[in-house]
Amino acid sequence: MFKNIDGILNKITMYRAVLYCLLFLLAEAFGLSFLNLLAFGPFDLIISAVFILAVCFFANAIFAWAFNAPSNVESVYITALILALIITPAKPFDNLLFLSWVSVLAMASKYVLAVGKKHLFNPVAISLVLITLASNQSASWWIANLYMIPFVIIGGLLVVRKIKRFDLVWSFFIVSLLTTSIFNLMNGQNLFSGLQKALVYSPMLFFAFIMLTEPMTLPPTKILRICYGALVGFLFAPQIHIGSLYITPELALVVGSVFSYLVSSDKKLILTLEKRTKLAPSIYDFEFTSDQEMAFKPGQYMELTLEHPRQDSRGIRRYLTIASSPTEQEILLGIKFYNNPSSFKKSLLLAKLGQKIVASQLAGDFTLPKGKNKKLVFIAGGIGITPFRSMIKYLLDTNEKRSIVLFYLNKTRDDFAYKDIFDKAKLQLGIKVVYSIVDIPSASYYQAIRERVPDYQERFFYISGPPSMVSAFETNLKKIGVKKSHIKTDYFPGFA
User: Are residues 421 and 353 in the same domain?
Assistant: First the structure.
């Protein structure tokens, strides 16, 4: 069942997964309102949602034009739907001024409260904080409703499964529930009742699954994400206050965004396409120069935004691993073109030299370990070779020797890319490289790994490639005795 779910999720982008989840929740709320199970009617809900969507759309268009900045329409819809799900729909035309202001502020925050053209705060959270300070009106978080909880859990878990941010969500839940429990015990309140209120009658679940995981304001590494989740979780506890000021969910997220900014590389780069090289029948290398110096670790990824006409359902954004080394002046991106490529990839392939593209959200933990004495095994499938090209080129340029065995899998001999780099590493650094023409590795392939790497149980395995391949290798390596702690997989949100 989970394989079928993952197969579906892998075909859509991260933003599309969140958008579908919000539309699903809105549809369920519409049905429940028909049954008089919510505090408003279906007509009120539709009027409110459509009005917010319209204001957000036009406000975003104006700000994008004024700031000459690229805009992701899916992001606009997501922000609008979140607002519609947490601000109680009023009778028609009763609350339009409040809805207008909160929608405009949410869009404005993406352009005004930004550094290097990258917004600092979750748009929904900062707009609610500002509107509360100005008018003393706030969100009701009506989605925290007993009847909506099952749908929030289903949709939310699918989103988190897609973006693989369970570490962030769990750190938030654990710290928030623990903090709430401690305060309840100190105040002599029933522990079970307190936890029930936190999970069912507070916006905790929707907040964690949908708002906390917003990618633009997340720290770049796993450890920092866990710290971020824990900080927001602590502030989310209803008993936390500063004097007479009690911390609201939106304020907790704004404070968390400040932490994220302080520990992240929060800037956008403008990349200029300088060269395009065909490496294999379906693989191209794109070479860019940057308008600013770009500091990164070998193996990290970044988000690219390419505005183009006739966008398909996969949108204008992609997360791609950087194939170049930090020692190189150019930014290299290796991209594989499958049958029926997305409009994003088609536009990039047809782009003229000099085309500008926006890069942001540099992140990722799939990097070389600090301990230089650790023995490593790299396993790459197809275009999953890009982080290893970055790492090995870095080792070549710094003349740093490490014990590495690289297994590079492809369906045909012609699909192997960057062989010049790996062959040079064999001669200069003693790195072992095994080129394998294989589609789906059989049990004998894992036996071959054991034979070629006799000390495999001592080594740390890095796996990068299509999700199904990565999952299969992770499972089978455990079966032959590799510790879970010795397996590191490459993943970045929005693989599709």
Answer: no
